[in-house]
PadR family transcriptional regulator
Amino acid sequence: MALEHAILVSLLEKPGSGYELARRFERSIGYFWTATHQQIYRVLKRMAADGWVDVLDVAQQGRPDKKEYSVSPAGRSALAGWLHEPIEPESVRHEIAVKIRGAAFDEPAGLIAEVERHRRMHEDQLAHYLAGQARDFPPGTGEGPPGAAPDPGRELQHAVLRGGIAYERMMTAWLDDVLDTLRRLGPGG
């Protein structure tokens, strides 16, 4: 996936400035795609030159004007084309997994601190995702009024977040298993 597609999706959800878009990447799009502010601004400039986004100069009181970006018909067409293209499943590459296998040729217990560090990082990410879910998708807010059609954008955003939550739970459980194994194999194990 190119950053352009993530930006198009975000701008279709809500037009905004480059700064606002970067904040959305930090808050929610970051669940599945990360980008720096510089990358976002560089790609927005290219997308504007390619005609994928429209740019509106918005005057601000007491501050410099800002550029508000929205998806153009050409951008919608590009996104639709990409949505209909098949993609291959991503292969998982975890350097920590290679280190774990390599520990068989060294002292397995020597890897415990590094695995614990990775587990804390996944536990922190899980807490971040769960806080975002509590903030953005409190129980009972997704249904809407009785008989109302569901909001596909909101429901799909939540589905992606649930995927991130499931992944982080899986990683912490796996790392717990690895820690148990390393401790069992270590000195006195």
The helical segments are 3-13, 18-27, 37-49, 73-83, 95-102, 112-136, 152-185. The beta strands are 53-60, 63-71. The first helix runs from residue 3 to 13.
